[in-house]
């Protein structure tokens, strides 16, 4: 190799190293995307009819509620917290909403009530964490038990939803040519929540404060950033997303049941982590969380196509989660070495 060739090779290697060091937080996101594409390609090669408009449309619509929950969870985890209450809050708001609708209250009143209740539950978790020094795990666990108990207090049995406005959210189809990709209002709601989450985290002072708190909360305090208010709002956002997920899940199932959403909080956390958000906070993206949800949904769909037990979904997600946590630890360790 000539001297000029050696210089060019060295310059390229330096540029690649610089890009990797500056964009290390995107590496897990790209990893999740590679896994998603690989699963799609492999499933299409095996089944022959996997990557079709019908299956891809169902991938979004079947997981719209999980996508909304993942956006809210991303805000909380970025601050270094956790919210285990989202599944129970989704069930509680869904039960109360279905009960109010069955009593004749209009949808225009019921839906805001569901969102406000979700916000209230999130605020309660945030207050316990910020003002009483309770660990986020314990605070959100207490809220999870409370919300699940409130769901049972509304009714011990399933409540069928017959309100046309709620059912329209899932039944309406926005489609071009017959057989092409289609959307429902629930899918559009989920995508709008993702878009808003991206814009808030990437282009607002509130979003930059979220990252600063997750990176180093003490430094954020010394810089005069509104740490308490920002962390409270992060939990409120998670609660609002749980309330909205209650609306979407109720429309999806056409009924509410007190046991809805059991384990959903763990699915949400898994999707967010697989999407590249560090559990220690300070690094992650809503776009990555969306990819994580699609990875989760694709695994469920593949297992359904195979006719295997859904237990394999949990096993596969557990394996992926372990891999991504190890990758994150490696990235954090290397970043620390480069700083020193």
From TrEMBL:
It is a multi-pass membrane protein. This is Sugar ABC transporter permease YjfF. It comes from Microbacterium lushaniae. Its main location: membrane. The chain crosses the membrane at residues 26-47, 67-96, 108-131, 137-159, 180-201, 232-257, 269-299, 311-332. Keywords: Cell membrane, Membrane, Transmembrane, Transmembrane helix. The lineage of its organism: Bacteria, Bacillati, Actinomycetota, Actinomycetes, Micrococcales. CDD domains: TM_PBP1_transp_AraH_like. GO terms for molecular function: transmembrane transporter activity. It is found in: Cell membrane. GO terms for cellular component: plasma membrane. Pfam families: BPD_transp_2 (PF02653).
């Amino acid at each position: 190799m000539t001297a000029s060739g050696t210089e060019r090779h060295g310059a390229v290697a330096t540029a690649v190293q610089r890009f990797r060091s500056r964009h290390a937080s995107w590496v897990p996101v790209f990893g999740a995307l590679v896994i998603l594409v690989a699963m799609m390609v492999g499933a299409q090669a095996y089944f022959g009819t996997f990557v079709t408009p019908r299956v891809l449309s169902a991938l979004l619509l079947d997981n719209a509620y999980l996508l909304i929950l993942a956006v809210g969870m991303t805000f909380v985890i970025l601050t270094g917290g956790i919210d285990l209450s989202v599944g129970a809050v989704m069930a509680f708001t869904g039960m109360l909403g279905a009960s109010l609708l069955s009593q004749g209250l209009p949808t225009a009143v019921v839906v805001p009530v569901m969102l406000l209740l979700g916000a209230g539950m999130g605020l309660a978790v945030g207050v316990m964490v910020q003002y009483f020094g309770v660990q986020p795990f314990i605070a959100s666990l207490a809220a999870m038990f409370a919300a699940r108990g409130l769901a049972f207090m509304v009714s011990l049995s399933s409540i069928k939803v017959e309100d046309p406005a709620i059912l329209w959210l899932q039944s309406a189809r926005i489609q071009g040519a017959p057989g092409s990709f289609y959307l429902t209002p629930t899918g559009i709601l989920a995508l709008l929540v993702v878009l808003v989450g991206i814009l808030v985290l990437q282009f607002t002072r509130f979003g930059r404060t979220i990252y600063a708190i997750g990176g180093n909360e003490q430094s954020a305090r010394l810089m005069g950033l509104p740490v308490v208010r920002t962390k409270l709002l992060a939990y409120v956002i998670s609660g609002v997303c749980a309330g909205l997920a209650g609306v979407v899940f109720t429309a999806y199932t056409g009924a509410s049941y007190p046991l809805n959403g059991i384990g959903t909080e763990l699915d949400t956390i898994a999707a967010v982590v697989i999407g590249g958000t560090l559990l220690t906070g300070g690094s992650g993206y809503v776009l990555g969380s969306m990819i994580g949800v699609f990875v989760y949904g694709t695994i469920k769909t593949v297992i359904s196509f195979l006719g295997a037990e859904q237990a394999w979904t949990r096993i596969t997600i557990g394996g992926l989660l372990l891999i991504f946590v190890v990758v994150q630890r490696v990235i954090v360790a290397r970043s620390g070495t480069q700083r020193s």
